[in-house]
């Protein structure tokens, strides 16, 4: 269930859902009280206001970062300092993280090349503004998949550097924005060397390796061991893991990931030009849908890979029994779980939302009321109003608003204020009266059964 923490920040932003939190910072979705637009809001709580005042570079960096404009870079709208608090307002998240794409999709070679060309193509915008040494972990890269083609966006706003200047101590979680993850770090990050545009090119090389093979080039048993491997070991051959590797692609990755920064691509545009010349082989023109063992793979690797493939097939077969519509034109689903007589027995019924704006309610033939989504079948006690709520898709976001219903609309634990839209996200739970549904967006991960939660109505 999404956590919400309603506060006013900077006299302008009203916080909504908590996206991430750590000892010194919290990331929210928030609302601009002047425009009612949804924004991303980063709030850093320093130990003391004196510590913030003693770091003038914070203001200088944020002013520089705010000047950057690109469709492939998250826009920083506003920032401010209130005593020991620093707040930064950006565009809200659009699409899904690259980490989510890696976890849930098979990425073919053509798509991997396209994603990395977009990433490398955005780097000169940073470098021309005097900003380099980015944090290009998949957690901080967004892929907007709603359009015909992917659009990549770099979401790094320099938060790791800001936290470091405030003596932030990371808990070393992989999802901690303040953590220097050696799996994605160029050698100069690890060895306190000179950081510059060459460091960002190295990181694109890591991501290209990861997108092509589905695994990171260097992973040790500990953080320290991973750092040593990253700083000293040669790049593994991707042909160990992938068949049909285009000619020259291994050399491009190795050129990006040279240990000596002077031997890497001198400019991101040179990297883009090299990627443009790569011609995917026939085997790389389609998405990878199965596992083909190479001679270099160990018997253990083959056994694990084949078992994973079999499990994926079993999952796909079980999902097909749910009779899920997969045709184009479905914006989202409302999923209802009908409990069987046995506690472990349940049946899923999924309602496709085929329009950008739909009314959810209860049909009343006598009054000629026919909402787009009729919940009468799930509501024998008639707790759903005739015109109960509206779900709408605007830009890249879904919203839900209560239409002055008799028995209210609840989004998670939040009771909606009538006629006031709230941001709606994948896997959110919605109660229309006593009818409990789960909101799901196609392409946002495998179809999950509605979680069994205790309800007190």
Explain what you see:
The protein has 457 residues and is an alpha+beta fold. Helix 4 runs antiparallel to helix 7, helix 4 packs antiparallel against helix 10 and helix 7 (197-213) runs antiparallel to helix 9. The radius of gyration is 24 Å and the shape is globular. It contains eleven helices and 20 strands.
Give the secondary structure arrangement, pairings included.
Elements: E1 8-9, E2 13-21, E3 25-32, E4 38-45, H1 49-53, H2 57-66, E5 76-82, E6 85-90, E7 96-97, H3 98-104, H4 109-128, E8 141-144, E9 151-154, H5 159-165, H6 187-190, H7 197-213, H8 223-232, H9 249-256, H10 268-276, H11 299-320, E10 332-339, E11 346-353, E12 357-361, E13 373-374, E14 387-394, E15 397-402, E16 409-411, E17 414-415, E18 422-424, E19 429-432, E20 435-440
Helix pairs in contact: 4-7, 4-10, 7-9
Terminal CA distance reads 17 Å
Question: How would you write the strand order of the largest sheet?
Answer: 1-2-3-4-6-5
CATH topology of the largest domain: Transferase(Phosphotransferase), domain 1
Low-pLDDT runs of 5+ residues are 282-327, 341-345, 447-457
Features:
11 helices, 4 domains, Phosphorylase Kinase, domain 1, Transferase(Phosphotransferase), domain 1, 20 strands
